[in-house]
Design a protein that fits this description.
This protein is of the alpha/beta class and 322 residues long. It has helices at residues 15-24, 40-43, 57-61, 81-87, 99-115, 117-125, 128-132, 154-165, 189-195, 215-221, 238-246, 266-269, 285-304, and strands at residues 6-10, 26-30, 46-51, 68-71, 90-92, 147-150, 170-173, 198-201, 226-229, 252-255, 274-276. The longest helix is centred in the C-terminal third of the chain and has 20 residues, at 285-304. The structure holds NADPH dihydro-nicotinamide-adenine-dinucleotide phosphate.
Length: 322
Amino acid sequence: DEARPTILIPGRINAHVRQRVQSEFNCISIETADASLVQPHDRRRVRGIAAMTEISAPFIDAFDRLEIIGNFGVGYDAVDAAHAARRGVMVTYTPDVLSDEVADTTIGLVLNTLRRLPQAEAWLRSGRWLKEGAFPLTPLTLRGRTAGIFGLGRIGLAIARRLEGFGIPVHYHNRTQRADVAYPYHATLRDLAEAVDLLICVVPGGESTEKAVGAEVFAALGENGVFINVGRGTTVDEPALIKALEDETIAAAGLDVFADEPRVPRALMALDNACLLPHVASASVPTRNAMGDLLVDNLVSWFSGGAALTPVSETRSLNRNS
Ligand code: NDP
């Protein structure tokens, strides 16, 4: 029906998002973000995109009447938001509604990495407890550690608050010191790594953080050091991380994100001192539904009242009538 705006969904998306888009808008779905998969006639009808995939500048340019891109997730490094802003296209994301879930998962990943709980469960399930006795004591513990948060934003702060509950002192590094927290601030990531033995990375991806965590940071973290990444895989020099784990420059790593997902380097999978998760930090049904609702609410609000609820910083000053 012509009165309803047409929303394009390229690639996979949460089922709740698809359902709501289909009930509130005209919906076109294509397998991947490739504009040639959309009929020229349909291309001119597309006014919104709902996506959790890469949205490039050429893809944005393929739709003359495009007004808004709703990104499923708080990390929107896969969307060319700078280009969208130049074109006057609004970009929205889903901050806050996932922060507690991601922080909870991060604590789980920290404990699994240090106390080897997945390996301990495998020990029980494979009958080794019965045959061989107790699971070996873990050399590593959370007790006595100092945590460093690289990226003390919404999620980083939720992680810091949890760590306080565990009795763990927290330090951090951002580009800018926060005025609203008392945690010790370090002006460089290297200084932070030097000061702590549990480094948690939760900065956004993109150019400004690309390969920020490399050999120098691992050397500073040290042989008792543990590295956790729940931000983006691109922030880490992955070969340098593998080397640091292999030669025990650091003690262990817990990773939810990787440089080239879903491909995880064989060398990483072979390592006993790495705990690996398939990008699941926000991946519960309730939290993903809340993210989906916020995405669709942004589209509904845009097309009814003309304002996006949660615009990304690059497009914050755009409104529908500008
Ligand atoms: P925020 O924007 O609230 O926080 C980001 C923090 O990182 C800010 O404190 C910012 O401070 C700091 N930062 C940004 N760039 C740099 C830089 N170049 N150097 C140093 N510090 C930097 O974002 P959220 O906490 O909501 O989310 C953070 C990221 O977590 C997302 O962008 C996403 O990539 C990732 N994420 C991963 C998930 C998963 O499933 N594993 C789930 C959800 C999010 P300042 O600007 O002062 O530098």
